[in-house]
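Would you mind writing out a protein's amino acid sequence and the numbers that encode its backbone to help me picture the idea?
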Amino acid sequence: MENISAPVPQGQPAESRGRAGTSTRVCLLTLGGDVYAVDLRNVREVFEVDAITPVPGMPPALVGVTNVRGAVIPVMDLRLVLGVSTAGPAPQYAVIIKHGNHQVGVLVERVPEIRTVQTEQFLPTPSGVAGGAKPFLTAVLRLDDRMGGVVEVPTLLAYVETGN
């Protein structure tokens, strides 16, 4: 699988720069009833969460670690980072997202959907969102009757590594 290493221009995924009419495969995550998209090339796998072991001193969004076939994976509640409601039942699934050698499990409310979307469906983020309260969102994805934020995986994983 290829990883995205260059910064993503606002409103346009890296793999479709300069190519109107191209398509991209994304993984749609449900968090707090909202939809978020992650480039499928950054998704390693989806698993049902059995147990999460809390680790003292981790940033608040990192809720602990879990064992996935012998590998210890940090688990993040992305709802806390994005300011999404955490009301309701605890998420039952996690998606392991990766970039280079870094990876993290992101809790999601239901099994993600994989979808092919066209470049034209990506819109710029509203002013004040990019680099502000939600620096992990680089674009808005228009999906039928709903909109979803596009998660910038390298920025998110850098946050996990540094804790800020």
Q: What stands out?
A: Helices lie at 78-82, 129-133, 153-162. The chain has one domain: 26-123+134-162.
